[in-house]
Design goal:
Layout (H helix, E strand, L loop, with lengths): L6 E4 L6 E4 L36 E5 L8 E5 L15 E6 L13 H19 L6 E8 L11 E7 L4 H17 L3 H9 L5 E4 L3 E4 L10 E5 L11 H20 L4 E6 L10 E6 L6 H6 L2 E3 L3 H9 L1
Parallel strand pairs: 2-13
Antiparallel strand pairs: 1-2, 3-4, 4-5, 5-7, 6-7, 6-11, 8-9, 9-10, 10-12, 11-12
Helix pairs in contact: 1-4
The structure holds zinc ion (2 copies).
One zinc ion binds next to loops.
């Protein structure tokens, strides 16, 4: 793609289009601006967060300096609850560190691995509950990405139905497998490894800026083994993921980007491949995006790849 010309790209296997419009980008490093967040008293800091009259205690993980390393609490104002048949489901908050103001990538990689261990444990716990069909693990960082509390945390939401977006992608995966006899994500690793969108790789993970990325600087983390969920990740794979996520998030710090990442665990099908998707949040989606679902992205993935590698 030339520096001036726009290009419409279709996703690898989904019916999804993105318009790359590089010339809209006058100042490449200035598309993000992190809003200032100020709180008087942090509800995720000890001792407040440990008080059962103030927060719903679920489970503490690890022990260091007389406190937990990672803590799971309930959501005080859940949109979904196991007690409400009209909005059945469950929500949990994972507090990644007792240290206020430290973001996930500023933690040692070993601590990041502990956070992934907790993701896996909570995922399995939720999926074992009656009537739960899908559980998503995600993180919102920065005001624009929907984070309301500036103490590093992730969330899990389990749902009583397969979300349509997930069902649609699963159907597209099945169609791809029928046609090619192979998994689309395994094929993406093969076809992109030597290309201009490959950011990092080791024996365990391949990290790329996807061909039709919906977000500027969007990144996918694909485990090289064809595995179904975060529960299948081995310790050395979690270590690779932590190292790569750390590098990517430090680069996003440079441009003050708010971001979301989420773990897309497969539906219970052997043929499906789990993936972690990271989406920095653009300033605003305008009429075209809201009205048609077609996204305009000012940052070609090849340019994003160079940014992350520098
Ligand atoms: Zn705090
Ligand atoms: Zn695969």
């Amino acid at each position: 793609m030339s520096e001036q010309e726009s290009e419409i790209r279709k996703d690898y296997f989904l019916d999804r289009y993105v318009v790359f419009a590089p010339k809209r980008l006058k100042k490449p490093k200035k598309i993000y601006q992190k809003p200032e967040t100020v709180v008087a008293e942090c509800v995720f800091c000890p001792p407040y967060v440990n008080d059962p009259s103030k927060q719903i205690q679920i489970k503490d993980y690890g022990k260091k300096n007389n406190t937990w390393e990672v803590k799971v609490i309930g959501n005080l104002y859940p949109a979904l609850s196991l007690n409400n048949m009209k909005a059945y489901g469950e929500q949990e908050v994972i507090i990644e560190t007792p240290e206020h103001g430290k973001e996930i990538h500023e933690l040692p990689v070993e601590h990041m691995v502990k956070v992934f261990d907790v993701y896996a444990d909570r995922y399995e716990t939720m999926m074992a509950k009656d009537g739960i069909c899908y559980t998503i693990v995600f993180k919102n960082e920065g005001g624009r990405a929907g984070a309301s509390i500036p103490h590093s945390h992730s969330q899990l939401i389990s749902l009583p139905m397969i979300p349509p977006k997930i069902a649609k992608e699963a159907a597209a995966v099945d169609k791809y497998i029928d046609r090619h006899g192979s998994c689309p994500y395994c094929d993406i690793v093969k076809s992109e490894r030597k290309g201009p969108r490959a950011i990092f790789e080791d024996d365990n993970f391949f990290v790329l800026s996807p061909y039709a990325s919906e977000s500027p600087y969007g990144v996918w983390f694909i485990p090289k083994r064809h595995i179904r969920s975060i529960s299948d990740l081995k310790p050395n794979e979690k270590l690779s993921l932590a190292n790569f996520l750390k590098k990517i998030l430090f680069k996003l710090d440079e441009i003050d980007a708010s971001y979301n990442y989420f773990i897309q665990n497969s539906l219970d099908l052997e043929s499906h491949h789990m993936i972690i998707k990271l989406a920095p949040r653009p300033n605003i989606w305008a009429g075209l995006e809201l009205g048609t679902g077609i996204i305009i992205n000012p940052v070609p993935p090849e340019e994003a790849t160079k940014f992350y590698q520098n």
